[in-house]
Amino acid sequence: MKIKIISITIFLVAVLMAAGTYFYDKISTERAISQTHSEALERGYSPVYGSEEARVALVEFFDPACGTCAEFSPLVKALVDRYDGKLKLISRYAPLHENSDFVVTLLEATRLQEKFEESLALLFENQNLWVKNHVSQPELAISLLQAADVNIDKVYLDMESDEVLRRVGQDIADMKTLGITQTPSFFVNGRPLVKFGYEELVKLVVSEIKTNYN
């Protein structure tokens, strides 16, 4: 009996130590990202949805060819609208699908015509028309943008501009710095969404809003 009790005690200690290590690693990861790589999370040039003055920043690294990104897009914007003035969405590019680097450059160029939101929504809604077997088809994406009243000739010129190329290049560099390998990847005031899911994202957002507005 004593041997069994000792064995169970050792097992429980091991479990608690493992759990402690997990939570320590999780906290350490969050602190490392928020402190060491904070500059890689937010850039002044990035598109912002919501109030610029909001104290809670939801950073999303996305790929326009990503199906899950398309599904989450209306949900995330609805979340920003729900906490109007307290939460803002900062969009960052993470072109992980083949040829998506071209498409995000295209998207960035539409911003110079103030057509980013319309263009992104159109690409998300019609992914099946320009993403084939998880590969982006840039020429099909471009043809879609005419429906958003985008000046395609100007887009082609702007895609080669130093500013557009610098922004896209910086996003890709930041994506690599943060070790992002899947989309969408979310951060709330520097804290990464460790367990992926919409409810988990809402909980993280609510936690930061309570911390910053109470």
Notes on the protein architecture:
The protein is α+β, with helices and mostly antiparallel strands. It folds into two domains: 35 residues; 175 residues, 3-Layer(aba) Sandwich (Glutaredoxin). Helix content is 60%, strand content 13%. It has ten helices and seven strands. The strands form two sheets. The protein has a five-stranded mixed β-sheet. A two-stranded antiparallel sheet has the order 4-5. Helix 4 packs antiparallel against helix 5 and helix 4 crosses helix 9. It is globular.
Proportion of residues in helical segments: 55-70%
Radius of gyration: 21 Å
Give the CATH class of the largest domain: Alpha Beta
Give me the CATH fold name of the largest domain: Glutaredoxin
CATH architectural label of the largest domain: 3-Layer(aba) Sandwich
Instruction: Tell me the number of helical segments per DSSP (H or I, 4 or more residues long).
Output: 10
Brief summary of the model shown:
This protein has 214 residues and is of the alpha+beta class. Helices cover 60% and strands 13% of the residues.
Notable traits:
214 residues; alpha+beta; Glutaredoxin; five-stranded mixed beta sheet; two-stranded antiparallel sheet; 10 helices; 7 strands; 13% strand; globular; disordered N terminus
Fold blueprint:
Blueprint: H1 2-36, H2 38-41, E1 48-50, E2 56-62, H3 67-82, E3 87-93, H4 100-111, H5 116-125, H6 127-130, E4 131-132, E5 135-136, H7 138-145, H8 152-158, H9 162-177, E6 185-188, E7 191-192, H10 198-213
Parallel strand pairs: 2-3
Antiparallel strand pairs: 1-3, 2-6, 4-5, 6-7
Helix pairs in contact: 4-5, 4-9
